[in-house]
Amino acid sequence: xxxKQHSKDQxxxxxxxxTNLFGGKNPELPASRNFRRLPFNHCALSLQPFVDPYxxxxxxxxxxxxxxxxYVKKYKQDPTSGEPLEAKDLLKLNLHKNSEGELHCPITxxxxxxxxxxxxxxxxxxxxxxxxxDRLNIKPKHWKDLITxxxxxxxxxxxxxxxxxxxxxxxxxxxxxxxxRKATDDDGETGARHKLRFVNNETESVLKELDETYKxxxxxxxxxxxxxxxxxxxxxxxxxLSAAHYSTGGVAAGLTSTVMPIIEKQRAATVDExxxxxxxxxxxxxxxxVTNMGDLNLEVFCEQVPKTCENFVRLCxxxxxxxxxxxxxxxxxxxxxxxxxxxxxxAEGGGGKLKKHEGKTxxxxxxxxxxxxxxxxxxxxxxxxxxxxxxETSGGACRSFWGxxxxxxxxxxxxxxxxxxxxxxxxxxxxNTSQFFITFRSCQHLDNKHTxxxxxxxxxxxxxxxxxxxxxxxxxxxxDIYIVSCRVFVDPFEEADVKVKELRDKEAEAVVKEKLDRxxxxxxxxxxxxxxxxxxxxxxxxxxxxxxNDDDSVRSLSGSVKISKVVGKSTFDNFDSW
Length: 578
Hints:
This protein is of the alpha+beta class and 578 residues long. It has helices spanning 15-20, 65-75, 130-138, 175-178, 201-213, 250-256, 273-278, 306-317, 381-389, 460-467, 492-519, 542-560; strands at residues 53-56, 62-64, 90-92, 96-97, 103-104, 118-121, 127-129, 157-161, 243-247, 268-270, 285-291, 294-300, 328-330, 334-337, 353-358, 361-366, 421-424, 436-439, 452-458, 483-490. The protein has an 8-stranded antiparallel beta sheet. A 3-stranded antiparallel beta sheet has the order 2-1-3. A hairpin with a 5-residue loop joins strand 4 and strand 5 (103-104). The longest helix is centred in the C-terminal third of the chain and has 28 residues, at 492-519. The chain is extended. The termini are far apart.
């Protein structure tokens, strides 16, 4: 301590201090500033996550087996440094994963990251964290593998990743990247076929046949009901009438799936043809059933339950009901018909039940199923219906106009209320075919079980006569009641078909006209106008020149006339001057 203890302090920075201590110019910058980091779990050749990791014993760079072997066979060089490399210089690495599939050290159980210090043992190929090897091998000088207990020396420790020295993870300095070399074999094959070293004769023949017959997925997959040709601009076979408000989903499917065809243009889905037709049905239909007891005039609600009504109207028009019998009659309940001639018992049933109380006796009647009756009276209707279903009796089964059963159509405003309600018979939900019944009274318990599709508008006395016919113990009329013929007075479905056909014809004509207009060749107009005179205004015709001169003379005459301004008197007696 003294008076001159700060005599050597400087109030400025020297050039040497600025260059070497405090920044400034640094001549020792890295050769490449473009540092592109490769993750430690990626192959340095394919630049993809490795599956079978191998490393070079000289540099510690990790490669994938399927990538490095063809490269070494072809170039005999290290892909990263360009130095000579042989297959014997590659070491298989034994990496360990935890329960979550992450690479980790089997001793410390630390997960490997891009900042971990990772080493491998050359004699065993096991990979550890450097701190585990440092504490358990290097410091205590215990030169044995921590897992297999194999002996090794200090030179056998290969550094795979050192966070203080990441030069070998710089992709921009790789030799194969700068030389633009591919990881292919000698034959230049890059597919999976060349990876098979040994195959037997059967496998070879199968692969050969596959190469000859295999065809890549084509656009024919799109020519199904749900996918249409994206090159066409229409909405399907039905045109714009059949176009739904939603798309086919082909664009999304092609984007998210690897097996679906790629569709770049959104297209509307095609709705069912019946939906297109039924939107043009806007009125009721009228049918007459001519029976041996009299006529039954029926009104069918085509605009409310079109599917059920079309089935009934079409069957009547085609003569399906001609000669068929009303095979079931329950007084104060209903009469059922529509079964083809030749069927015995019931081919269809229903879900409605009617209970009659007569003292202590209770009988349960079910539409179509025949019901259970008291006492043993031989084979019941339920058993007959079951036997017909199993093919034990003769006769064909009931069918709809389209062949298969169709779904129910329930409407809250169509109920079994009143006498003369026309409804469908079935043997469960969505099993409607051809059988129907007409009620003799209100049957509210049948609502939402049987589809109401019409009512009786004429032939009330005929219905009364049918109800009075006596029946046997199985509710079969003792006297034959059959349909002689059917007559359709109003068929809204034929009118709807005509409307749909007209609209589609107009649309087709418009498409054809538009196509012809596009294909019509462009007529080149003569670019040289007609010359009428010479000089300025040579393209103006004589008629236009004369008309212009006449207008000019009129304009000069009108300009010489003075228009006097009328000034009115401001009095309150007369307002004409206003």
